[in-house]
Amino acid sequence: MSTNPGPSQIFIIRHGEKLGDPKKDDDGGRHLSVPGSARAADLPSLFFPPAGQFSCGLRLKNEEFHGHYHHVPIKSKPARFATPNFIFATARSKHSKRPIETVTPLATALDLPINDGFDDNDAEIKKMANAILTEVAFAG
To answer: For the stretch 55-65, what's the b/e string if a residue is b when 16 or more beta carbons lie within 10 angstroms of its beta carbon?
Structure first.
């Protein structure tokens, strides 16, 4: 029997949409589309305490969308989910920056680092899952 109780709750969030065919990594570029960026920017409202501060802006540069995130007052909404203590995303790759781009607004709003030390392949994702479920740092 394990003495490590593991995390009390885990949320898995799919990265936001990209341009092009969603079934093909090499179609549409490495970045989130405008709708994908808008959904990413709204993630903090699901977790953030009602009196929070957060803002997101998007701009087009060299045919890619780039976001900037900073703290400014936002409308008060009751949080729908418990605030996370840790945020994970697979590392940036030549095919995609979408996982990191999706959680950046949430990480910025909560002032949490993004744990992005795992690549986007089956072996690395298994390592990430094992770390989350067994390492003492993530217990409870």
So the answer is: bbeeeeeeeeb
The C-alpha atoms of residue 101 and residue 92 are separated, in whole angstroms, by: 9
Q: Could you give the 3-state DSSP secondary structure of residue 88?
A: strand
Pairing of strands 87-88, 114-115: parallel
**CA separation for the pair 122, 130 (Å, rounded):** 12
Q: Tens of pLDDT along 60-99?
A: 555 555 555 555 444 555 667 888 899 999 998 887 888 9
Asked if residue 106 lies in contact with residue 88, where contact means CB atoms within 8 angstroms, the answer is no
CB atoms within 10 A of CB 78: 7
Where do the structural domains in the chain lie, given as residue ranges?
34-134
Task: Supply the pTM of this predicted model.
Answer: 0.73
Coil vs helix vs strand at 32: strand
Write the DSSP string, 50-71.
TT-EEEEEEEEETTEEEEEEEE
